[in-house]
Specification:
Blueprint (H helix, E strand, L loop, with lengths): L1 H7 L14 H5 L6 E5 L3 H7 L4 H22 L3 E8 L7 H24 L3 E5 L7 H13 L7 E8 L1 H17 L10 H5 L12 E4 L18 E4 L9 H13 L10
Parallel strand pairs: 1-2, 1-5, 2-4, 3-4, 5-6
Helix pairs in contact: 3-4, 4-5, 4-9, 5-6
Bound molecules: farnesyl diphosphate.
The site of farnesyl diphosphate (FPP) has 19 residues, from α3, α4 and α5.
Length: 262
């Protein structure tokens, strides 16, 4: 077990001792309220195994289940998963079609258990371009879980941060044009409340898998003060222990928000 921890903890990320983290250990410190994940590396995971890329996405779906259960165990309030970006339409049609079928497949397999676990499903993205079957699956999940009060599982589906900021600013510009507000009165809160993440806290912790060190148009406004955690692991290999390691590292960080430590 110790060997496993050592292999995925990057230099400098490793805690004082390679502890085998338990829920109880983590609950002694502050748990991030909102964890957001850029689930990357499905394609490379598949290629490494000589499989078609879509098999990587299918395995990625299983990692979604593991991450959800682990987030729920820790009492995390919101788990946002970047499932499809506004730029992912550039991929071959076969891959896009597969990715658009995943929510349906995932929910057919897991929705009953998620309902039972008091998980509330939410979606953050532009529905206009999504196929009807994808929208229908998401709508059903949102409807069936709307009264749940536990973990919010927020799928970023056809999501793009620049687009959401642009839309927010456009809406405010219309209000200015209509004489409802003056340009000088525009506040950060007014922009924020018009983003697709409206009503959710900003992510405290942002995780990206696969060794890429970038944000890829994901929650650019909301992650202004998020703690970032990167791992070389490909998303289909991500499991409970990796979420726990990211949370443990989060607990060792000092958040200053531009101020000074107390
Ligand atoms: C990035 O890896 C991953 C995606 C674009 C899709 C992520 C989707 C899933 C993990 C499944 C989502 C599940 C649900 C339930 C909605 P990549 O394909 O870009 O990998 P690569 O960089 O190695 O090619």
């Amino acid at each position: 077990m110790i060997k496993l921890f050592q292999s995925w903890w990057k230099k400098g990320d490793r805690p004082a001792s390679s502890e085998n983290l338990s829920v109880a250990d983590l609950l002694e410190n502050n748990i991030p309220e909102h964890v957001a994940i850029i689930m990357d590396g499905n394609g490379r995971w598949a290629r490494k195994r000589g499989m078609p890329r879509n098999m990587g996405h299918r395995s990625g779906m299983k990692a979604v289940k593991r991450a959800t259960i682990a987030a729920d165990e820790l009492g995390i309030s919101v788990l946002t998963l970047y499932a499809f970006s506004t730029e992912n339409w550039k991929r071959p049609k076969e891959e896009v079609d597969y990715l658009m079928a995943i929510p349906q497949e995932f929910l057919a397999l897991e929705l009953d258990e998620l309902v039972q676990k008091n998980v509330r499903i939410r979606m953050m993205g532009y529905t206009k371009e999504l196929p009807d079957h994808t929208i229908a699956a998401m709508k059903e999940a949102i409807e069936r879980t709307k009264n749940n009060t536990g973990l919010i599982l927020n799928f970023a589906l056809n999501y793009g941060s620049r687009r959401e900021i642009t839309e927010s600013v456009k809406e405010l510009a219309h209000s200015v044009q209509a004489g409802e507000i003056s340009a000088e009165d525009i506040t950060e809160e007014m922009i924020q409340s018009r983003l697709l993440s409206s009503g959710l806290p900003d992510p405290d912790l942002l995780i990206r898998t696969s060794g890429e060190l970038r944000l890829s148009n994901f929650m650019l406004w909301q992650t202004a003060y998020s703690e970032l955690w990167f791992t070389d692991l490909y998303w289909p290999d991500f499991g409970r222990e990796h979420l726990f390691a990211a949370v443990a590292e989060f607990q060792r960080r000092t958040r200053r928000y531009g101020g000074l430590s107390k």
